[in-house]
Design goal:
Strand content: 15-25%
Number of domains: 3
GO molecular function: single-stranded DNA binding
GO biological process, one term: recombinational repair
Order of helices and strands: HHEEHEEEEHHEEHHHHH
Number of helices: 10
Oligomer: single chain
Region (Disordered): 215-239
Low-confidence stretches: 197-232
Radius of gyration: 25 Å
Helix content: 40-55%
CATH class of the largest domain: Alpha Beta
Distance between the termini: 91 Å
CATH architecture of the largest domain: 2-Layer Sandwich
Largest sheet: 4 strands, antiparallel
Structural class: alpha+beta
Keywords: DNA damage, DNA repair, DNA-binding, Transit peptide
CATH superfamily of the largest domain: DNA repair protein Rad52/59/22
Length: 300
């Protein structure tokens, strides 16, 4: 009897302490409310934060929903803000049916930048996912939603982008066991075939040249021409920047990027960022010109 009473007393004390923690947290969050919407960015920070999506990193679920792994969102925030951002959890995660729900605030440089609820499906009989895994999944989901609320990777929710990406990078296939069509990402070789296509799908239009390109994609352009690095065997940041600036069409830009992007691994972080910004700017210039031509061609 005494043991039972002692346990009840401990539970009561823990409950009171928990309420105090929640109340203190809410009080601290209220102090941050006036900072909401006040975060300022330099022009360079804005360029890096809102760089267009690297389409090759996008993934697709069997039901056809495209997404970016949570690591892409985390990396983008880190590239811009370093460690000056944080997900602030509202209490502990809660289970609602087979869903784990967890609310977070996003704070950047001491400024309140959003509030979002992350969710993750959890079933106790699933040996592939522990409770801890599900909780982390809910946290990662909250991160992606919070990043969406501040404008990161919003193309993922634009129908035009989704349809174009699926056409280029994904395919439907018949799942015999489930008896329906599902989606999957195409093998990278298949994507290269489409980019070099001249009217026949699934074939190698450039024969031996394309086979060489497939075996060593870092050395050959889409037309099978061998890339010509600088005298020391590598392309310098300045040379790659000039190649990007001298591109004449969007397809030409894509060709240059696919041929030389792997050199970025050897560049300094600053050179890498400068090149990525230059590439994205050039891409937007081509897109703007294309839209402009379409507008004038459509006028009567």
């Amino acid at each position: 009897m005494e043991m039972t009473e002692a346990l009840k007393t401990m539970e009561t004390l823990e409950g009171i302490q928990g309420e105090e923690v929640v109340n203190n947290f809410e009080a601290e969050i209220k102090k941050l409310i006036p900072t909401a919407g006040t975060l300022t960015l330099s022009e360079r920070e804005r360029e890096i934060l809102y760089r267009p999506i690297d389409e090759t990193r996008v993934e697709i679920r069997p039901d056809g929903l495209i997404f970016l792994p949570w690591t892409e969102y985390q990396t983008r925030l880190k590239d811009v803000f370093g460690l000056s951002w944080m997900l602030l959890p509202v209490g502990m995660p809660k289970q609602h049916g087979d869903l784990i729900l967890w609310t977070f605030y996003l704070a950047i440089r001491g400024k309140l930048c959003g509030c979002g609820i992350g969710e993750q499906q959890y079933r106790a009989n699933n040996a592939q996912m522990s409770w801890g895994d599900a909780v982390e999944g809910a946290k990662s989901n909250a991160l992606t939603r919070l990043c969406k609320s501040i404008g990161l990777f919003t193309d993922l929710w634009r129908p035009a982008f989704v349809n174009e990406w699926k056409e280029r990078y994904a395919e439907k296939y018949w799942d015999v066991q489930k008896g329906k069509f599902l989606w999957r990402k195409k093998p990278i070789e298949s994507v290269h075939v489409q980019h070099t296509e001249t009217g026949t799908s699934g074939r190698f239009p450039y024969g031996e040249a394309y086979e060489r390109f497939s075996r060593q994609p870092e050395r050959y352009t889409q037309t099978g021409e061998e890339a010509k690095p600088s005298g020391n065997g590598r392309t310098s940041p300045e040379e790659l920047m000039e190649k990007i600036r001298s591109t004449a069409t969007l397809e030409n830009l894509k060709d240059v990027w696919k041929t030389y992007y792997h050199y970025l691994e050897a560049f300094s972080p600053e050179d890498k960022d400068n090149i990525l910004v230059a590439k994205d700017r050039r891409k937007q210039e081509f897109i703007a010109k294309s839209n402009e031509r379409g507008f004038f061609n459509g006028r009567k």
